[in-house]
Amino acid sequence: MTTMDPRKEKPEEAKVEIQEKPKEVKEGTIAIIIYSMYGHIARMAEEEAKGITDAGGEVDIYQVPETLSDTILEKMHAPPKEKYKMITLDQMVKYDAFLFGVPTRYGNMPGQWKALWDATGKFWTTGALAGKYAGVFVSTSSLGGGQEMTVANMMSTLVHHGMIFVPLGYSRTADLLGDMNEVHGVLEVDPGSLFLGSPWGAGTVVGVKPKDERPTPLELRIARIQGQLFCETVSRVKFKDRSSAAESRAQPQV
Ligand SMILES: Cc1cc2nc3c(=O)[nH]c(=O)nc-3n(C[C@H](O)[C@H](O)[C@H](O)COP(=O)(O)O)c2cc1C
């Protein structure tokens, strides 16, 4: 039996506190924040962003800092990181609406996402994210791998922060999500024939050995619709001036 050298395997600390100077954010701009180890969530994010632009919105895409060591990432055959800027807490709080891209880990968010949320204690106590809007899109390797569970398991975090969940719903996706012609369930036979996503949020199923054909055109279409719908929903809101909102949170009335 080989013994692991704990010093070599120790994960690097999450770099969530590294502060680039936070860039100014135009009111109403939507932040898509993702973690993507193998690129599928990143591809979905691009489509969500197109949907936001289709609906006349503005969008910035960020990624969540890595928490695994290079050694472990190499063992997991993880390709180099995506090109997006790393989210910082200072930057995150400047947005009023978010789409979170979450590849499942045992039906839940990955540790990289959890590390970011675990660093938001100050936001929780001050209500800095309260009343802000959030949608979720997901990725799993299998059909029963936890697409809806992953979104549902995000709820606790959103609720504790007082964030408002915006589902994908069926209003513009009933025919697509209900398209049984594409659900065959055997990836190896016909890689283009299985797609996922649910009214909880767009989703892609990538298979145990991820393939280039994932996400499918249909999954990407649904992701784009989610971007459009999310943007339309948050565009109905007149966001309060951020400086006065932050001030009132800092001085709670008792
Ligand atoms: C530790 C670990 C746990 C995972 N757990 C699940 C799971 O519960 N269900 C599932 O379908 N896929 C599971 N997967 C597969 C990932 O969800 C899949 O690799 C990911 O959605 C691909 O997205 P990405 O290309 O953006 O990284 C797991 C992967 C890893 C590494």
UniProtKB/TrEMBL annotation:
GO MF annotation terms: FMN binding; NAD(P)H dehydrogenase (quinone) activity
Cellular component terms (Gene Ontology): membrane
Protein name per the record: Benzoquinone reductase
Pfam families reported for this sequence: FMN_red (PF03358)
Family label: Belongs to the WrbA family.
Sequence ranges assigned to domain Flavodoxin-like in this UniProt record: 30-230
Gene3D superfamilies, sorted: 3.40.50.360
Entry superkingdom: Eukaryota
Cross-referenced InterPro entries: Flavodoxin/NO_synth, Flavoprotein-like_sf, Flavoprotein_WrbA-like, FMN_Rdtase-like_dom
SUPFAM superfamilies from the UniProt entry: Flavoproteins
